[in-house]
Structures are given as C-alpha cells and as structure tokens.
Write a structure and sequence with these properties.
The chain has about 130 residues and is α+β, with helices and mostly antiparallel strands. The chain has three helices and five strands. The protein is about 25% helix and about 25% strand. The protein is globular.
Length: about 130
Amino acid sequence: MDYKLLMEKAKFASQNSYSPYSKFAVGACVYGKSGNYYYGCNFENASYGLTICAERNAIGNAIANGEKEITAIAIYSPNRDNCYPCGACRAVISEFCPDEGIDVITEQNGELNIRNFNEFLPERFKL
C-alpha cells in the first residue's frame, strides 16, 4: 500500500470540508480490503450535534460502495499536525476494522506517522 498516495487523497478531500463554524478542515481517505479508496471530509451544521467527521464520512462512502472491511485510513487537517480520530470516529473505525487493527496514517511536519489502530482503542468492544 502506498501511504503517501493515501495521505495525498486525504489532503485532497480536506479541500472540500464544510467547516464554517470551527474553521477546522479535515479530510480522510479509507483504503478498503478490495484495494479501493474512499474519500470523506468533515461537514458542519449550525446544530453542532449533526456535524459529521471526515473519517465517518469516508467510512460511510466505503459502505455505500459495498466495502465492509478497511485496512488503512489517512487523516489530514491543514489546521493541525497528527490529526487523530475523535472518540466517535474511533468507535466507527472499530466496527470495520479487523482484530489485528489497521494502519492509521497522519502527518507531522511533512512526515508520515503510521500507527496501528489498536493503540487508539485498546481492548475494543466487538460482537
């Protein structure tokens, strides 16, 4: 898997962010077990609870296209280095993540940071 390409796709997705309230743009790109890429960006709503994160948007795109297992996710924000997933996104990623975890790719000072998802949500709940 080309992590740089995955991050470039997340950066591209971040350009479409709709974040007029927080001014915090985020893009994500999911790499599915099928070998396909799925994009997502965050989009906000005046009723903050209805805001959708980039990671959940990308995973929803994957699901809508028939993908049920992801192998990696790149997350990018032009506003912050190492933009890690929030708690809600960690729970959603967990749902479509194999037991051994997936690669979570972020960027710091232009360098890729690759961590296993299980570091973010150890001993996660799965049925």
